[in-house]
Amino acid sequence: MANLTFEWIEKNMPKLGYGCMRLPLTNPADAKTIDFPQSEKLIDAYMDAGFNYFDTAYVYHDQKGENAVKRLIVERYPRESFFIADKLPVWQADSHASLNRIAAEMFERLGTDYIDFFLIHSLDHSNEASALKYDAYGIARRLKAEGKARFIGASFHDTPEYLEHLLTAHPELEFIQLQINYKDWFTSLRSDEYYRIARKFNKPIIIMEPVRGGALADPTSETAKELMALRPDKSFASWAIRFCASLSGVATILSGMSALDQVLDNIATIKEAVPVTPGEMAALERAAHTYDRTHYIPCTHCRYCEICPQGIDIPLTFDIINEWRQTNNWAVASTQYGNMLASARADRCIACEACEAVCPQHIEIVKSVAIAAKNWNQ
Question: Are residues 39 and 141 in the same domain?
Fold first, then answer.
């Protein structure tokens, strides 16, 4: 199989990718309840506009995401008309054999003979240790040699220093998927350093979380005021997408679109192709620092923490805490928390730290949910 090049990307890949981690649901509390009629409308609008890159993972939608991609895309469009990216979760395995089984199951769930972009999922210190122990890289290389994986890469969640180590140690990785958005670029996550390291190694970049789980589509009023004054006819999400689209070396920008207006707005932003100006970049830097002051827990609603054995709704708990800290309205937060199902509340936490082991943002989840339990479990 040929290796991935920037020339091939320029000719074949769309700048906007469809992240299939946040498909619309019939029951917002259950990730398995995918709303297929609504999802079809979103997928069709995206494909009709000339875009065709779909990103999923073994663990998405409580392990129903790949089946959904099969039903929504593989069974409805000619296989050569779209690209699929899928991710191998090394933390789900306990041996080389079990990781091989998971890899085989990915193809079965998707109903396809090959995956265009095959990734080792969410590499950090811990997952890299498992990837080496269970030979995830060997599995990826084998699949490429067999023609079952066109291109092999990884998604990454760790420090810039560890990214440099990873790309040095594994030159077989043809691309890297990174969390890049204007908030993380200008504040503590150091995504600007991720970007520079990937460019140094000449690796095509797939951007994830450009709108930071939707948070940058609805920034605080203080943030919104300046951005709205500069481009009053544009959405806040368009600022986040334009920022990423202004970066060179980016193969595609993944957006987890769960509503038709999001699909249409992102398409319009990409097709307009207006780079961010230096003055706008300065405004985005100010917005990033405003966001950092008002959103205290950096949750992106990836919902990897749904493995919680107690069934705690961790992302919703964090939303309530963040809004409380932003508005200082204890009563509203208390009401929101009280409206949660008792079975999903923070007081059920047993501090097992299973959630922290899989959190891509490395949030101290146990400590953070304790804030809610202390304040609102009266």
Answer: yes
Name the token pair of 124.
Answer: 């950090």
d(CA 266, CA 237): 8
Residue after which a domain boundary falls, among 272, 294, 316: 294
Residue 249 has pLDDT above 90, yes or no: yes
Comparing 94 with 295, the larger pLDDT belongs to 94
Note whether 265 and 315 are same-domain residues.
no
Q: Flag whether 241 is in a domain.
A: yes
31 touches 62 (CB < 8 A): yes
Asked whether the predicted pLDDT for residue 327 surpasses 70, the reply is no
- Residue 328, number of CB atoms within 10 A of its CB: 9
- Contact indicator for 330, 375 with CB cutoff of 8 Å: yes
Separation between Cα atoms, residue 17 and residue 56, nearest integer Å = 11
| Residue 369 to residue 372: CA distance in whole angstroms | 5
Residue 299 falls inside a structural domain = no
Are 329 and 224 in a shared domain?
no
Residue 151: name the closest of 1, 337, 338, 17 by CA: 1
pTM: 0.87
In terms of domains, do 242 and 371 share one?
Answer: no
- Helix segments in 134-252, DSSP class H: 136-145, 160-169, 182-186, 191-200, 221-230, 236-245
Does residue 129 lie within any of the structural domains? yes
- Boundaries of domain holding 242: 6-294
For the segment 97-122, what is each residue's pLDDT rounded down to a tens digit? 999 999 999 999 999 999 999 999 99
pLDDT above 70: percentage of residues in the chain: 97
